[in-house]
């Protein structure tokens, strides 16, 4: 099902009823968007983290052997038996193949594939979830900064306000105007640097910054990327910090017992030998796929069956 006008929360939740069910188990992206999305889903629906994924490696708790029982959060999973919530561009055109029937994704619902890459959803999985479940961001500066930092959402607004505003209309019923007020300003970047980046650096040490910089003061967006093998404290600090300002109860973190390593590949879609995207990818051991531009797709293949 694709929708050309404003998306409907009710219609989406009828199509993906599991997205509002309680006590689900989730694998999350090992980054800020994944952690904040997990905190939202844990606080409001009691979802539990049982694994992490970073486009190359999959970590799972000991008891999780059936991957189709899990929900993949902020991960563009492309296997037909999987349920996932993601925001990547995953198809070449507007058609949604059977392999993505379980993916709750604004681009898929809106019929946006790589051919319309410039029209793609520009924000985080967190903001999509906030809209889908009609959860307002707490009226607090740091809470607002956290929501905007996930997946460089504020930077997307600075870079292309027209595209962002088109999605304000496509996702009605959320206070986008308040959330993005004065984002394209030196004052916003100063507050981001002083009120969010500096405290996070004190909590987790040196942070990875995005390659893109703010237009006014050159402030980078914080990239909270962690390795579950030895960075559990980073995830704990981030979720506790978010809980303080967003007022969401931090999700317990799993004890990782198994790991699987895949190969992250990027290929140009005009190559003759490319597999059909994404229909034939799971047969080749591919777990996730996403277009990074209108003509380049990245996917992760696992040589050993998961």
List segments where confidence is low: pLDDT < 50 over at least 5 consecutive residues. Answer: none
Shape: globular
How many distinct beta strands? Answer: 12
Series of secondary-structure elements, N-terminal to C-terminal: HEHEEEEEHHHHHHHEEHEEEE
The total count of helices amounts to 10
**Could you tell me the mean pLDDT?**
90
Strand order within the widest beta sheet:
6-5-4-1-2-3-9
Distance between the termini: 29 Å
Structural class: alpha/beta
Major beta-sheet overview: 7 strands, mixed
Number of domains: 2
Radius of gyration: 18 Å
Beta percentage is 15-25%
Percent helix: 25-40%
Q: What attributes characterize this protein structure?
A:
306 residues, alpha/beta, seven-stranded mixed sheet, 20% strand, 12 strands, 32% helix
Secondary structure blueprint with pairings:
Elements lengths: L8 H7 L9 E5 L2 H14 L2 E6 L3 E5 L9 E3 L9 E3 L17 E2 L1 H5 L14 H8 L8 H9 L3 H7 L1 H10 L5 H4 L6 H19 L3 E6 L6 E4 L8 H15 L9 E6 L1 E6 L17 E8 L2 E6 L5
Parallel strand pairs: 1-2, 1-4, 4-5, 5-6
Antiparallel strand pairs: 2-3, 3-9, 7-8, 10-12, 11-12
Helix pairs in contact: 2-4, 2-10, 5-9, 6-7
């Amino acid at each position: 099902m694709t929708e050309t006008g404003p998306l409907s929360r009710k219609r989406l939740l009828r199509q993906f009823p599991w997205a509002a069910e309680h006590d689900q188990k989730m694998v999350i992206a090992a980054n800020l968007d994944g952690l904040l999305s997990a905190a939202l889903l844990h606080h409001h629906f009691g979802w539990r983290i049982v694994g992490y994924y970073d486009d190359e490696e999959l970590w799972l708790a000991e008891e999780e052997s059936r991957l189709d029982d899990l929900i993949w959060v902020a991960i563009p999973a492309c296997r037909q038996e999987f349920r996932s919530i993601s925001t990547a561009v995953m198809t070449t055109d507007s058609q949604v193949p059977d392999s993505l029937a379980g993916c709750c994704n604004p681009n898929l619902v809106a019929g946006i594939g790589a051919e319309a890459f410039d029209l793609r959803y520009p924000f985080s999985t967190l903001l999509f979830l906030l809209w889908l479940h009609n959860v307002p961001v707490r009226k607090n500066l740091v809470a607002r900064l956290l929501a905007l930092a996930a997946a460089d959402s504020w930077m997307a607004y600075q870079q292309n306000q027209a595209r962002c505003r088109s999605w304000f209309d496509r996702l009605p019923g959320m206070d986008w105007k308040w959330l993005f007020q004065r984002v394209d300003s030196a004052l916003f970047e100063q507050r981001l640097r002083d009120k969010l980046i500096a405290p996070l650096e004190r909590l987790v040490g040196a942070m990875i910054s995005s390659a893109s910089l703010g237009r006014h003061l050159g402030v980078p967006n914080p990239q909270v990327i962690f390795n579950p093998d030895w960075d559990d404290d980073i995830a704990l600090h981030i979720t506790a910090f978010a809980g303080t300002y967003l007022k969401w109860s931090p999700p317990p973190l799993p004890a990782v017992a198994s790991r699987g390593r895949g190969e992250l590949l990027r290929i140009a879609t005009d190559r003759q030998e490319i597999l059909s995207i994404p229909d034939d990818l799971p047969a080749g051991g591919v777990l996730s796929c996403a277009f990074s531009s209108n003509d380049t797709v990245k996917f992760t293949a696992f040589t050993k069956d998961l």
